Amino acid sequence: MDADLVYFDDPNDTYSSLPDDSVSSGNVSDNVVFGISILVICIFGAVGNGIVIWLLGFRIKRNPFSTYILNLAVADFGVLLAATFFVADYWVGFIYDTPIIFFVFFFLFLSTYSSSQFLLTAISLDRCVAVFFPLWHRCHRPPHLSTIVCALIWVLVLFFLLTAVTCTLKSVRLHVSIIEESYQFIVNAVLCLPVMTIATVSLFIKACLKARQHRRGRLLTVILLTLLFFLLFAFPFNIMHILTNLIYLPIYMSSGALLLACLNSSINPVIYFLVGRQWKSSHREGMKMILQKVFKEEEGCVEETTV
User: Fold this and answer.
1) What is the spatial distance between Cα 71 and Cα 147, in angstroms, rounded to a whole number?
2) For the chain, N or C: smaller number of CB within 10 Å?
3) What is d(CA 58, CA 305) in angstroms, rounded to the nearest whole number?
């Protein structure tokens, strides 16, 4: 896949250069394999996140932590939907006649990809407070805090981190500088990476020390795996986008970063299933029961039942 398509550069440049570049830049079979791989990942990931959204949104009584997971599943679903569109359009090519559709999915991808990072940052901070200050977190946590945080994250990303501004400038075909083009990715890197890294290391150390005395809880295992996979798979897309606007990078690097980002958005439901399932039990468990077991450890003095 061409780097222009992956990183959503100026539509004028994309329209004029993409077909020639995509034909001459690499082996057609490699492009086919890449396209099929990312479509398969996106389809299965969308189904998994859709199941999580349905169960946490309508079938399971929500608590403060599952509210974060519900919003994270929505963000991941949006990333996969937008990525599926761009990959499918790579083969069909109807975007050239309908640029407004491009900007709709560009906005969807940028906002949901950034929201997932801020949601994971909030999740990591929430877990650190729960682990290091368990009494306060269990009994004195402000009511509806997770709902308020999730709402603020969506508003912040959609309206104040240049998602809307950049898309508006592009839609009217005005010049967007390199800084403006990469602004939100730079903000994601500066604000989210240090917090998530410190939180992940702290939780890992705490979990290892606690494991000597007690069995590690499912919820903490889920969070550690989710943060680890994000740092390894999804975050490099920020760096690739910034570097692509500054220097030339091989196409396989940008395509690989997009593939890993989609894989990260697809893997969370798998983590919930693998960690929550009782492997030694002969009783067959549904996804609803598994999610209930994973997130029941959050039950405490304060419960929250609205998103």
Assistant:
1) 9
2) C
3) 11
98: left (phi over 0), alpha (psi -120 to 50) or beta: beta
Where does residue 30 rank: exposed (0-12), middle (13-18), buried (19+ CB within 10 A)?
middle
- Can you tell me the distance from the alpha carbon of 258 to that of 113, in angstroms, rounded to the nearest whole number? 11
Tokens at residue 206, please? 């705490």
Show me where the domains of the chain are located: 3-277+284-298
CATH match for 3-277+284-298 among 3.10.180.10, 1.20.1070.10, 3.40.50.1100, 3.40.50.2020: 1.20.1070.10
Helix (H, G, I), strand (E, B) or coil at 222: helix
Top pLDDT among 296 and 129 is at 129
Residues in the chain: 307
Q: How many Å apart are CA 108 and CA 81, to the nearest integer?
A: 8
Distance CA 217, CA 66 (A): 15
- At 143-187, the pLDDT tens digits run 789 999 999 999 888 876 655 555 555 555 545 555 555 777 888
Determine the residue type at 247: I
pLDDT, one tens digit per residue, over 181-221 is 577 788 888 889 999 999 989 888 877 766 554 455 788 88
Alpha-carbon dihedral angle through residues 235, 237, 238, 239, given to the nearest 10 degrees: 100
Summarised one tens digit per residue, pLDDT across range 274-291 is 988 877 666 777 888 888
CA distance 174 to 134: 51
> Can you tell me whether residue 17 is helix, strand or coil?
helix
Place of tokens 């969807």: 108
State the CB neighbour count (10 A cutoff) for residue 107: 20
Closest CA to 275 of 265, 267, 263: 267
Side chain identity, residue 105: F
Q: Looking up tokens 């809880």, which residue turns up?
A: 217
